[in-house]
Design brief:
Blueprint (H helix, E strand, L loop, with lengths): L4 E14 L4 E14 L3 E5 L6 H9 L6 E6 L2 E2 L7 E4 L11 H5 L1 H5 L4 H14 L15 H14 L4 E5 L7 H18 L2 E5 L3 H7 L2 E5 L6 E6 L11 H24 L1
Parallel strand pairs: 3-8, 3-9, 6-7, 7-8
Antiparallel strand pairs: 1-2, 1-4, 4-5, 9-10
Helix pairs in contact: 4-5, 7-8
Length: 261
Amino acid sequence: MSTNVKFSANGVRKIFHDERTNRSVEAISNLDLEVHDGEFVVLIGPSGCGKSTFLYMCAGFEFPTEGDVAFEGKTIKGPGPERGIVFQDFVLYPWRTVRRNITLGLELKGVAKQEAAKRAQHWIDLTGLSGFEDSYPRQLSGGMKQRVAIARTLACEPEAVLMDEPFGALDVQTRDFMVRDLQRVWDETGKTIIFVTHSVEEAIMLADRIVVFGARPSRIKDDIRVDFPRPRTESDPEVQALRAKLIDLLADETRHESIAG
């Protein structure tokens, strides 16, 4: 792993104000975090703890009320091609085939048709979509649609990929296949990835680091480096011990949130 810092957050605070009720909610409080080049960092925590809000700050869709979020040392002021994002919803165009959904971003960037097709095919092959190039979204399963969304993001060659619960809408078996496939893609590309999830299993199977967010107003409860080798299996004693630790941490935060509420 490189020591170069890709994302940095310093003293980040986020307050949402509802003008209708004239109430303010502090979502994130005094958050500091660094994500290095080539790291796979998973953010996990209770519902509503601000992990997706922080991801959107990294994407340039949200901005801190106080503090700074930067990419390669420069304050993030909006979305940029160096930062790709994959959402839980697939956001595919139903009138475009798999191939043409994947080439969309390249077309918008003015990439030549032949080059765009070549890049798309590379990601089609790598994400397990071979044979479905000319299929339409309505003909695909949920897992296949999410593969298209991931391939479309990667085809644009971002330096970092931000993923907001990308497997949250999938059944357990499909999710397990997607976790394995994403691991293979990361092994081959070495992309910096920040991945938001509610799933302890996804976090353990994928992460170099698991950053546990506390209950709102969120701060970092723990930052756990996952050093044991991949591929990981649920029967591995190290996996089981980490799973128990994460469940305890999250249960503490859920109780804290209930008491505070």
